[in-house]
Every structure is written in structure tokens, then in C-alpha cells.
């Protein structure tokens, strides 16, 4: 990226930085898994420095907690929608299938 280019344009810069870093962290987790998760690679993917990443999202632990909690909430929402109107065993089976799929 040329030195003159701003990696965040328009809107709230902090919100954009957080969104870019979280998206990069999700991609890093999907591709490499939690054991090979790298803050340096997340920063590179997001187009920011490691220092910016730490300043904006609080570091590796905070970033992982946030991204994993967001993923878990998305799965829970999908399960809730998929199991509406179901009862008993059918609800349990559908919940497990949807959760595993996600």
C-alpha cells in the first residue's frame, strides 16, 4: 500500500479498524486454526501495524475472545432459528445438526 493511502476511509475510523481486524482474525482462524493463529498475520491481512491492532482490539487474547464469542453467538442464532416450532427429540437433533454444520 502506498504511504499516502489511508487504510480507513469514510465513516468512523475506529469502527472500521475493529471491523477490518475482526474480519482478518476470522479468516486467519478459518485458514490456520487457533494453534497457528498469528497476530502478525492478522495485522497484515487487516492492512495495519501490529501496534495498531493492539491499540484497537487489545491484543491476541482479547481478539480471540471477541472473534470466538461472535462466532458462537452466530451459531446460537442459527440454532435458535432452525429449531423454532420444534419440540423434544426433534429440537435436540436439529440443534446439534445445525451447530455441527456451522
What would your notes on this structure say?
The chain has 102 residues and is mostly helical. The protein has a single domain (13-101), classed as Tetracycline Repressor, domain 2. It contains 5 helices and no strands. It has helices at 13-32, 39-46, 50-57, 60-83, 88-101. α1 crosses α2. Residues 1-5 have low confidence and may be disordered.
Question: Topology of this protein?
Answer:
Layout: H1 13-32, H2 39-46, H3 50-57, H4 60-83, H5 88-101
Helix pairs in contact: 1-2, 4-5
Feature tags:
102 residues, mainly alpha, Tetracycline Repressor, domain 2, 5 helices, 0% strand, elongated, disordered N terminus
User: According to CATH, what is the topology?
Assistant: Tetracycline Repressor, domain 2
Strand content: under 5%
Shape: elongated
CATH class: Mainly Alpha
Strand count: 0
- Cα end-to-end separation: 34 Å
Structural class: mainly alpha
Biggest sheet, open or closed, and with what strands and sense?
none
**What is the arithmetic mean of pLDDT?**
89
What is the element string, with H for helices and E for strands?
HHHHH
**How many individual helices?**
5
Unreliable stretches (pLDDT < 50, length at least 5) are 1-5
CATH level-4 homologous superfamily: Tetracycline Repressor, domain 2
Architecture per CATH nomenclature, i.e. the level-2 architecture:
Orthogonal Bundle
Using the CA coordinates, give the radius of gyration: 17 Å
Helical fraction: over 70%
Tally of domains = 1
